[in-house]
Write a sequence for this structure.
């Protein structure tokens, strides 16, 4: 993949899901040369890594790398361990769900800060949002602001007066708003993957929290859901 | 390695160097069951990884793990890349040296926060100090405080009222004070490695910044320096 960009480099945290694909499209619209990074941290839903590569290519990323992170720190979650992924929305209200992965965005953003310094990028994009989200504490604006401050005290660029900026264009958007914005920017959502518990053919389960948020988002956005769901009668 | 601890678990960032060995000894003295983590991030001075394992064992750590982190984010430093390690103390005063590794402690601490949550540990020990140090921004108390705040906004334990604590017992100590404290606690400094540019036999160069700080520390502490230095006439 080559870039014809002459604009500023940026680092994009690209998971292969719907949100980060939309963020990449927004960063491209804003003229950034987008260097995407996807993490391989032992997640159960590894099909998102291949999806991220497809998304990066389709949206004209300047580069895409898959960074290996030792999975030890990410254990004890339904997304990485032996705990079953819950289905059907039976979560406990505002409680942090079992799909929470310890310190995930903290680690991902820290890695992105290092990568940004190496690449000479000041802007780091992450697709967190605090409305239609899953109750993860590391998706809140309060965390992002505190992280940005800490990061700029840790780095040469921060100390020398060129601080990094953590950009969260989705932070206050609903899932439906995100899907409409991405559709307007030409995001091919058929390439993205959200499911926490896909089957062996890479089809989404349709029942996990990520699938339910995604399905509801397409419905509310009035956009046809291109997701391949496993099992009869699961397709909306 | 087995632990007979009944006390609280803690995560110790163990580099294999002098400082973190001393920190481990302090955490053991304070009764913690010490789970040590050493990072393999493509560093030039990889002999520190084996040193860390020896140090962990000699000081009765409850566990020691080597965590692999994709080296892409750590590039562009004399410690990881093709830049030569400077010798002889010709650094630029207060400038950040070429041995600075982008966002290193930010990434290491973030990983430790995830690991601590997995292990049920609240305390994370890191051997940063802001006196006899190398001008790295991520060794300052101001960064550590900001990081701790961000981390506790990112994690389930932080949000639910059991915040992690980043412990920096060396933060205001000189290298000589660190060596004296560690000697009193029985640290075998012969097991530790500080050099940024060891030879093929694992002998310290004696001339890089880390060697110079280490040598001066032993001299000022009045403790015999057990370091194996390469070349004739280099041993203090």
């Amino acid at each position: 993949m080559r870039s014809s960009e002459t604009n500023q480099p940026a680092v994009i945290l690209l998971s292969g899901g719907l949100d980060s694909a939309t963020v990449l499209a927004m960063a491209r619209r804003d003229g950034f040369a987008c260097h995407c990074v996807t993490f391989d941290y032992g997640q159960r839903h590894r099909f998102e890594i291949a999806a991220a590569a497809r998304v990066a290519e389709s949206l004209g990323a300047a580069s895409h790398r898959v960074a290996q992170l030792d999975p030890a720190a990410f254990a004890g979650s339904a997304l990485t361990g032996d705990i079953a992924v819950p289905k059907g929305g039976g979560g406990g209200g505002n409680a942090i769900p079992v799909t929470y992965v310890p310190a995930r965005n903290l680690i991902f953003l820290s890695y992105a800060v290092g990568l940004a310094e190496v690449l000479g990028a000041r802007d780091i994009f992450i697709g967190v949002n605090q409305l239609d989200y899953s109750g993860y504490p590391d998706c809140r604006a309060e965390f992002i602001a505190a992280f940005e401050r800490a990061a700029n005290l840790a780095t040469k660029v921060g100390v020398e007066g060129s601080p990094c900026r953590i950009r969260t264009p989705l932070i206050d958007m609903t899932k439906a708003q995100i899907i409409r914005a991405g559709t307007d920017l030409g995001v091919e959502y058929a390439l993205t993957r959200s499911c926490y518990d896909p089957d062996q053919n890479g089809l989404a389960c349709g029942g996990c929290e990520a699938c339910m948020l995604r399905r509801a988002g397409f419905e509310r956005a009035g956009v046809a859901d291109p997701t391949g769901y496993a099992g009869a009668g699961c397709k909306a």
